[in-house]
Structures are given as C-alpha cells and as structure tokens.
Specification:
EC 3.1.4.46; about 350 residues; alpha/beta; 13 helices; TIM Barrel; three-stranded mixed beta sheet; signal; glycerol metabolism; glycerophosphodiester phosphodiesterase activity; globular; single chain; about 15% strand
C-alpha cells in the first residue's frame, strides 16, 4: 500500500495539469451497477445522473431477434427465471465459446416471454443493498436504452453516449444471428453514424470488429483481457495482442482498446507501457473495470479482508488518470467523478 500511495502522491500535480488538457471519460459499466442491479434502465439512468459520459449495455438476442441488455445470454444469475415453473423445461446446457454452460438462455425466449421475468442483483453477497431492488425491473431492450439516453439528453442538456458490447458474436453467428449487423442497423436508424457520433462498439472477438469496420464509421474498440484470448481465434492470446506488433494490427480495424486494468498497471501501480504503446499507434485506451469493493481492487488498495467493504478505488482512478488512459469503465460513476473533479 505504501508504494501505491507514494506513487499516487508523485502523480497528483501531473494529473491536475493533464486534466486541464483532456477529460477522462466515465463509462457507466452496465449502468451504475454498484448501486442498482446491472443492465436495468434504473442502473443506466442513475449512471448518467451520477455523471457518466457513456452507458454500457451488453447485448444478446431473443428468439424473435430483439437485442436486449444482459451481461450474458445465460440469465439465471440476473433474473428470477429459475423460480418460474412455466419455464422449467427451458433449462439446458450449451457450448458457448468453448465452455459448457447450463441454465436458461435469452435466445430460447421471445421478447414477450422474457419481459415476464424480473431482474435480480447478480452479486448479492458483495452488494446486499442492491437486493432491495430485486423484482422491480424488466430486462430492457436496446430500443429502450436508446430512448432513455435521448430523454436524459433532453432533460440534462448533456450528451449521453452509448457503448454497446456484442456478446458471444461468433457463437450467435453459428445460430444464424448476426449481432454486428443487427446492432449497426439499429444504431444507424437511431442517428448514431460516423466517427463523431457519441457511440463506441466493443467486442472481445476479432472477426466481428473487422466486419464492422467495413459496415460503419462508428468507433470500434477491441476488448482485451489479462488472461486468455479471443474466442474466434484460439491461436492468439490477449497478451500477444497488446505487444507493439499486436497493437499495430488492432489499429488496422479498431479505434481503441478496452483493456483490463492489470494489463495497464503493474503490481506496484506503475504503467506497464501498454497505454503509451497503444496511444503512440493511434489507439484510444479505455480501462476496465474500476469498482469500489475490496474484492475487485488490487491487494494494496483493499481496506480489510471483507470482500464487500469499500476500498481505495479513488487511488486506482488517480493512477489510471496519471497514466493517461482516455476512459474508465466503472460500476461507480459518482465516486469516479468526485475523484477526477477534485
């Protein structure tokens, strides 16, 4: 912790100067999911009211081809579907991106059926306060998310950006469902077109982003994790993709990377060099994910052994800001805004 704090103190003056030159964007990760069940209209709205520049809906399809916001197409952890006897026969096991997954899946429900379900907090042990909202919200459609963004823009006078992720696009392509084309058609129809539009499209897979690069001028972001590799190219690792050579290849089809924080900051809190290399190659760098609870923070920033207790997320934000990232995904937009506004 001492090393992190010393590094933080050394960055305060440069951070203040950098903030005058360019703002670090706040992306409400699944909405303000530290305070409301994720991927609900309530979470997205709260994220904007807490100061987020963008809201992030993860998108999966229904059986009748409607894009809806869920972190995964398997929904037993985020809805009450397991308690609904009328859908007991929908329980199944599927192979998704090389992993066997059991449960209930959005692609096996029509939108009308899905709308009978109610959303639950995905992490009740970590965020017990959010369980007070269990049962209040429906699974939202992308159409509703866009309508909410427009309404909040009109009310607040601020631009509210969209940052959708297409989930498991290669898997869904195998089912005859082209998530990339569906998303672009809907965004273009809603007026999100061109590189200046307040929108980004993100994916962990490579091929869908390459296709999107020929379909739209909306900015594209290659997601990279600190482990594993893209599901549509098992020969690659994300570690290889953030080398100078890998970043140069990404720059051929994408406008930025969405990188796991451990790829960007070392164990001592110093930059690993990925940020500088990416930006030197013309790529934006968006970091994921800043969360306030101990379980999600580096060991040096945890306040106790209690996973659910709040740690020093503010220190992490300061270090990311000093390192020069262009944006941060966060479950806690209000806390992040208060940190970068100090």
């Amino acid at each position: 912790m001492i090393r992190w704090m010393l590094l933080l103190l050394a960055t305060l003056i440069p951070t203040a100067l950098a903030a005058q030159e360019a703002d670090m964007l706040i992306i409400a990760h699944r909405g303000a999911s530290g305070d409301r069940p994720e991927h609900t209209l309530a979470a997205y709205e709260l994220g904007v009211r807490q100061g987020a520049d963008y809201i992030e809906p993860d998108l999966v399809p229904t059986a009748d081809g409607v894009l809806v916001a869920r972190h995964e197409n398997e929904i037993s952890g985020t809805t009450d579907v397991a308690d609904r006897p009328e859908f007991a026969d929908r329980h199944t096991t599927k192979m998704i991106d090389g992993e066997e997954v059991s449960g209930w899946f959005t692609e096996d429900f029509t939108l009308a059926e899905l709308r009978t379900l109610r959303v639950r907090e995905r992490l009740p042990e970590i965020r017990p306060q959010n369980t007070a909202f269990d049962g209040l919200y429906q699974v939202p459609t992308l159409t509703e998310v866009i309508q909410l963004a427009r309404a909040l823009e009109e009310e607040t006078g601020r631009t509210v950006g969209l940052y959708p992720e297409i989930k498991h696009p290669t898997y869904f392509e195998g089912l005859g469902c082209d998530l990339a084309a569906m998303l672009v058609e809907q965004l273009h129809s809603a007026g999100y077109e061109g590189a200046e539009a307040p929108a980004f499209i993100q994916s962990f897979d490579i091929a869908p982003l390459r296709r999107l690069n020929g379909m739209t001028d909306i900015r594209l972001v290659q997601l990279v994790s600190n482990e594993g590799g893209p599901a549509d190219d098992p020969s690659r690792s994300y570690a290889d993709m953030v080398t100078p050579e890998g970043l140069a290849e990404i720059a051929e089809y994408a406008d930025g990377i969405g990188a796991a924080i451990p790829l960007l900051l070392g164990e001592d809190g110093a930059s690993t060099g990925v940020i500088e290399a990416a930006q030197a190659g013309g790529l934006l760098v968006h970091a994921w994910t800043a969360r306030k609870e101990n379980i999600f923070l580096p060991a040096a920033l945890r306040s106790s052994a209690d996973d659910a207790e709040e740690g020093a997320m503010e220190v992490l934000i300061r270090l990311l800001e000093s390192a020069g990232v262009d944006a941060v995904f966060t479950d806690d937009p209000g806390l992040m805004l208060g940190t970068i506004s100090d």
